[in-house]
Amino acid sequence: MSALTLISDPNTAMALLPEFTLVVGVVLMIVVPNLGNGTFRLPIPNTNIRLPYFFGGERFSFNSNPRVPGIISVTTLLFSTSLALWSQMSTPIADSNVWCITTAGEAFASCEGMVDASLLQIDGFSRLLEIVFYGALMLCGVAMWSRMPATPRFMIHAQVLAGRREDERIQKLLDNRRQVDFHLMLLMVALGMSVVALASDLFVMFIGLELASLSLYVLVAFMKENEEAPEAGMKYFILGSVASAVGLYGISLLYLWNGNLQISDLASSWQAMETIDPLALTGIAFLLVTIGFKVSAAPFHLAAPDAYTGASSPVAGVLSTASKAMGFVVLLRVLVTITMPESGEAFWVPIMGLLAAVTMTWGNFGALGSENPKRMLAYSSVAHAGYLLAAVTALGLNVAREGDHVVSELIVAAMLFHLTVLVLFKLGSFLVFSMLESEGKGSKLEDLYGLAKREPLLATALFVFMLALAGVPPLSGFLSKLLLVSGIVDATVHSTMNFDDGIIATLKSIHWVFYLALLVFLNSALSLFYYLRVGWVMFFEEPPTKKRLVYAPFLRITIMLALVGTLAFGIGPLADHLLTLVSNAAETFFA
Fold first, then answer.
1. Residue 152: its pLDDT value, please?
2. How many Cβ atoms are within 10 Å of 510's Cβ, its own excluded?
3. Do residues 469 and 320 touch, judged by C-beta distance below 8 A?
4. Each residue of 505-549: pLDDT tens digit?
5. Which residues pair with 51 in a beta bridge?
6. Disulfide engineering: 586 pairs with which of 303, 395, 413, 514, CB 3.0-4.6 Å?
7. Are 487 and 405 within 8 A, CB to CB?
8. Cβ-proximal residues to 171 (8 Å cutoff; 6+ apart), any chain
9. In Å, how far from its chain's centre is CA 378?
10. Cis peptide bond N-terminal to 299, omega within 30
11. Residue 286 clears pLDDT 90, i.e. is over it
12. What gap in Å lies between CA 191 and CA 526, rounded to an integer?
């Protein structure tokens, strides 16, 4: 792919506007905070002529504010989100809603006849996922404005005059410059996730996956003043690197088997096999190890609780929403697009069913015994991965039915709906914890005692988020779980229920995947215990202090917007609009 073609071809530039916006944001993040009145001396003897080069030296007033990197990242993500949404409207920015980018860097409005030569495909499915990614990262960026404060230089000078120690002064000066590093990593995560969403080549998808993952490893360990952060980041990095190495080896086996890593070509070769080739099967199995780690599926979830606990709450929220969605994108591409047979049940249905059952049950029991709110939400995230794996299992059972894609599209739409609204109430919960972290708390359940008496609005928002995670109506979490369960039921008892032979005989005739829907219901009921425990300690325990939390106006506004979205996407016209959006994306996925 030619970089010059990517820039010069108007169709390519138009199709990749959100991604180019991210690249511009990365460049601005590197350049703007380093602009200053730096000069260099001309090498002329006996002269002291200096010319400005505006890079280095003392920074100007407009870029010396430590909030500048955050403003750049949030603005960039906001523009990218708007462009991704606009590109799929009825009157998009381009002449077509579907684009394919070839290996030469050229964009074509029709993917027919050149899919085998494409590296990226832009459609409703990929754009919706990009909106989910950008939205979660944007909320994280806003939250870090208050989570990672910086002290102005004049305040540092005053503190030194007041007798503050020199090491404290140096630490605050370092804090003044690390906002660039954090928000630069945030944009790199967005860029990597975009590549995963758009990729139509398995190796390109892996590159995007690792670009996002490596940046996330840094973000997990970024808050170095937290003693748990470096250890959590190192654990997450080591286990993630091993999982990635296994997945990369699996990709190499698939290349040896097929000679091509185009997803469409891999799917054609897979369907052409009369019996499954051991080399191909081994490659897929190794790749599933990487995916299992990314989605925190048991038993690959062991690093997740430590990573969530050590990371700052906004970053933990990204891990539980955007990172999980990225993993399920790869899972759908690999299992549904590549390995689905033309007829009959997919070979991986029993494996996914077992993983789903173990993951959701293990996650909920782990959350029951957690006294750390962030660790509790980490295990809750594992449980939600189990719910989504149950939907994938039902999809593998149903997608091969001849001429019937309605139920398959319903299941994918339900998964997309769940991953979208999860950004609101799961990340919203972490944003509330972020306010507690700003005053050095939030790592114990006792830190939530009496929060309703200190911050009634925030406590109410957190309680609503907990209810949405449990799937209580009429919140958006209830609708998302209802859609998941409905898809599983439709895939298993679709036009097969017949009570003429008796209830027992009918139950025996139902496919075992149906009982995953029942297990989702039972686990959701079990999760109510630890979600309601959060509400109990906030409203019925005495607070250790009457002092309010940090002011953080932008963070408070963000939490309230997440609260409104949690309510609005559960019932009403906004829920209908989102259902239409995810349905169109699911239809595009199968198209």
1. 43
2. 14
3. no
4. 656 667 778 889 999 999 999 999 999 999 998 988 888 777 787
5. 40
6. 413
7. no
8. none
9. 14
10. yes
11. yes
12. 37
